[in-house]
Specification:
10 helices, mainly alpha, 5% strand
Length: 264
């Protein structure tokens, strides 16, 4: 699980990474593990100019079944193609696969999901009222519950990393999640983040290879088309009514007595 295993386990030929162009989305979670682990890869759209339509044609979610059907296809991006032509898909699966090849595999797994409007086939502009209703519950309660769970996990495992003594893909996922929440809901994030989680975010950001990537032009920055969008109308109001503190997944964690500002 040590970082020194990277050179021994990384494949001789670069992995081929496929994802939509111009979006951080789910693909950025995988890219960040690849970058931190020092795994050689080529982002076909970003680095070689592959047309995004070709990526979608390779997936069953976006194109008809080919005739004849010669091999199973990924459902949707992101996916990785190994040097032998094998393709691996699904974000969590990809992160674990890469992590196991470069010493970032966690001993345990932890996860969180973001709520979405009830009809995921529609864009935000097509269901604003439903999105607003969902966002109220998320920004006032659910975000704090999810971050409370991560805070509790960090405390239970003794740190300094999410799952114990060594950084894992889980920590990198938490970083991207926190940055995305801060971009999308800065006021709710500032209300929900804990000092311990904020310290974890800063530690992950300072990892040598990852920090170089985050400061580079290769990094896919948040925008208005990804899974994290800046929509101020869905964040907390400027002045909240006096009421109860948001519910926490586990109220026993001492770090939840304070709030901290989001990452810069």
């Amino acid at each position: 699980m040590a970082d020194s295993t990277t050179a021994e386990l990384a494949p001789a030929a670069p992995l081929r990474f496929f994802y939509h162009g111009g979006l951080p989305g789910r693909g950025e979670f995988v890219r960040m593990v690849l970058e931190d682990g020092g795994v050689a890869y080529v982002d076909l759209v970003r680095d070689e100019g592959l047309d995004g339509g070709e990526v979608r044609l390779a997936c069953s979610a976006f194109s008809p079944r080919p005739v004849p059907l010669e091999t199973a296809r990924p459902f949707a991006p992101p996916f990785i193609e190994l040097p032998d032509g094998t393709r691996i898909s699904q974000t969590a699966n990809l992160m674990l696969f890469v992590a196991e090849s470069c010493g970032l595999a966690p001993e345990e797994r932890v996860g969180a999901r973001l709520p979405s409007p009830s009809e995921q086939k529609l864009y935000y502009e097509e269901q604003k009222e439903e999105a607003k209703r969902k966002s109220v519950a998320f920004t006032t309660q659910r975000m704090a519950q999810y971050l409370g769970h991560l805070d509790e996990t960090l405390a239970a495992n003794g740190g300094p990393w999410l799952l114990g003594a060594q950084c894992s893909a889980g920590d990198i996922a938490v970083l991207q999640l926190m940055l995305g929440l801060h971009f999308s809901f800065p006021k709710a994030y500032a209300r929900s983040i804990t000092p311990a989680l904020l310290s974890l975010v800063e530690r992950v950001k300072q990892r040598p290879k990852l920090s170089v990537y985050l400061a580079s032009t290769r990094r896919a920055h948040f925008n208005h088309n990804g899974i994290f969008r800046s929509l101020p109308e869905l964040d907390l109001p400027d002045e909240e009514p006096v009421g109860e503190e948001p519910k926490r997944a586990a109220a026993s964690s001492p770090t939840r007595e304070k709030r901290a500002r989001g990452p810069k």
